[in-house]
Amino acid sequence: MRRTQPPIDLRALQAFIAVCEAGSMTGAAKQLGVSQSAISQAIGALERDQGVDLFDRESRPPRPNIAGRALLELAGPLIEHAQMVSARVGDASHAGKLPVRLGCVDSFAATVGPELIRAVSGSARQISLWSGLTPGLSKQLHDRELDVAICTQTLLSDARIVEVPLFSEAFVAVVARRYPDQRKNVDWRTLALELPLIRYTARSVIGQQVERFARHLGIESARRYEFDATDPLLSLVAAGLGFAISTPLCLWQARHYLDDIAVLPLPDSRLGRRDFFLLHRQGEWDDFASEIITLTRGVLDHSIWPALARALPHLPDGALR
Fold this sequence. Notes:
WH_DNA-bd_sf; 5-stranded mixed beta sheet; Arc Repressor Mutant, subunit A; 12 strands; single chain; 13 helices; LysR_HTH_N; DNA-binding; 48% helix; transcription
């Protein structure tokens, strides 16, 4: 069986070309700015790796033999391609033209995401947008499958990851609009006593956060309905089958239900807020991260919050900040 030869070392290949052009190892050493010994070692290693002699050493000066001439004919395109690849990688990295792989939790991707894409669409920036749950996005960031992630949980265990607080939103109680319309002095305590809590699944970060907050408030409700997404959750709420605890951004994500629901404030507490963070690796994508932070806050302040406040006038002040 013919042995598999290792890939050609590009530095050794440069040394080989220099010897052929200069006519000697001394001349090649001067051309490349290295010692003659380094040239000799590179040529020797190249011949050992390829299993052939590349020069006719009986001629003075040494000339490439048949194998050497074959390699010389192929070497130029190889070196040129390697230099082109190196230049393009360097240019793209320094100019910031590499496509940015941005991962966002679903509620952010479905609400703020389109505005971000629209805002950068006129520039040369290329963006690939992923959506998912915080645990999956965090793993993708660690595995370098994402460049920037917007999550609702921090990753303080990894010192290489920069965590920038982006914004915060308050949990609110959500109920069918006709429920408070038919009664007076309805608050979240009434809901907790009279209606079942329709939950987000515990496998999601928001589901875990809602559960902790509900326990903090003393809400004890049997687990009957659980959903991964806000859409089906609000469909049951709008039908009067229970109440939910959600956030302004989640409500805006499923805004076709806003005419059918009402919100009631919940007690202000640290557990009663969901925080968003922008995560990226230290020293990478700093300018893009700053751009995303500015754009996000602008979209929330000037677009999403005013629309939410009009649709749900009982949203408490500071529910989105």
